[in-house]
Amino acid sequence: MDGKIPILSRLLILSILFIFSVNTYSDTDYSPGDIVFISLEENERSMNFYYNSNLTTKVLKDNSPYLLFGIPYYTKDGKNQFIFKSEKIIKKVTLNILKNKYPIQRIEIKKFKTKTEDEYKRIAKERDEMIKAKKQTYDRFPDYKFTMPAVGPSSGTYGTVRYYNGKKGNYHNGYDIAADLGSPVYAPSSGIVTLTGDYYYNGKFIMVNHGNNLISIFLHLDEIAVKKDDIIEKGQIIGAIGSTGLSTGPHLHWSVMLNNSYIDPLELINN
C-alpha cells in the first residue's frame, strides 16, 4: 500500500489541472484588421478566453457562443497559429494571413510644433488613462452588428501608411468620416462610456465598451454629449464632429478594438 496514496493523489491533482487543447484550422484567408468568429461549446459560454493576456470578446451568433477575434495589424504573412487560453482549455486556431497593400497618405499639419516638457508629461498621463480605461470590463454580450457613427464621405481608411510633415508616423488605426463641424456622432452599438476627455492627440473624445471588451473610440470631437459610466443605446447621439487635437479639419476618427488590437471598423458594418 505504501506509495499508492501519493501516486493516486498526484493523479487526482493532474486530472484537476488537466488542460484540454482544441486545434482548429480554417481554409479561409484573412488579412490584418479582419474579424474571425471562433465557435465555442455551450459549456464554454461563461468562460473567459485570453489572447496574449488580453480578454477575447465573446458574442452570441444565432444564439450560439463565439469568440470574436480581431487579427492584429502586424501579423505576418502565411499560416499563423493563434492561441486562446481559459482556466482549463486552450484553443489553437490556425489561419492563413494575406498582407494587404495599404495606401500612403501624406499630411501637412500646420499646427504641428515641438513639444514642451509639460506636454510630454501630459501625453504620458493621457496614455496611461487610455490604457486603464481599455482594461475596464463590461460583462455582457455586445451587439456586433454596427451602424455607421456619422454621415459623410470617407477621408481615411484602416491601415493607411501616413507621413506627417514628411515624417513617417503610425499606421492609421481607424476609419475617418468627413463632415461639417457640429454634425452629429451616433453610437454604432449600445454600450457603456468608459472614458471621455480632451487630450493632446485625441482632442475631445469618447471611449465606449460595447460589451466583453469590444471597444469604440471617437476622436477630434467638437462636443461630447455623454459622460463616463453612461449606458448608451445604439443610434443615440453621443457627440458632434470637430477638429480638436491633432486634426487637419472637421472629421470623425473612429477606431475599434478587439483583444486590445485595432481592427478595421468596417468589418462590423453589415457583417
List the main descriptive attributes of the protein structure presented here.
globular; 2 helices; three-stranded mixed beta sheet; Immunoglobulin-like; Glucose Permease (Domain IIA); mainly beta; 271 residues
Written account of the structure:
- The chain is mainly β and 271 residues long.
- It folds into 2 domains: 4-97, Peptidoglycan hydrolase domains (Immunoglobulin-like, Sandwich), CATH 2.60.40.1590; 104-268, Glucose Permease (Domain IIA) (Distorted Sandwich).
- Helices cover 12% and strands 42% of the residues.
- The protein has 2 helices and 21 strands.
- A hairpin with a 2-residue loop joins strand 5 (57-61) and strand 6.
- Mean pLDDT is 90; it is low at 1-5 and 11-18.
Fold blueprint:
Layout: H1 4-17, E1 20-30, E2 35-39, E3 50-51, E4 54-55, E5 57-61, E6 64-70, E7 78-85, E8 89-97, E9 104-107, H2 117-134, E10 154-156, E11 161-164, E12 167-168, E13 174-178, E14 184-186, E15 191-199, E16 203-209, E17 215-224, E18 231-232, E19 237-241, E20 251-258, E21 261-263
Parallel strand pairs: 1-8, 9-11
Antiparallel strand pairs: 2-6, 3-4, 5-6, 7-8, 10-13, 11-12, 13-20, 14-19, 15-16, 15-18, 16-17, 17-19, 17-20, 20-21
Roughly how many Å is the radius of gyration?
A: 21 Å
User: What is the average per-residue confidence, as pLDDT, rounded to a whole number?
Assistant: 90
Strand content: 35-45%
The helix tally amounts to 2
And the CATH topology of the largest domain?
Glucose Permease (Domain IIA)
Largest sheet: 10 strands, antiparallel
Helix content: 10-25%
The figure for the number of domains is 2
Annotation, overall tally of beta strands: 21
Low-pLDDT stretches are 1-5, 11-18
What characteristic shape results from the CA principal axes? globular
Structural class: mainly beta
Distance between the termini: 63 Å
CATH superfamily of the largest domain: Glucose Permease (Domain IIA)
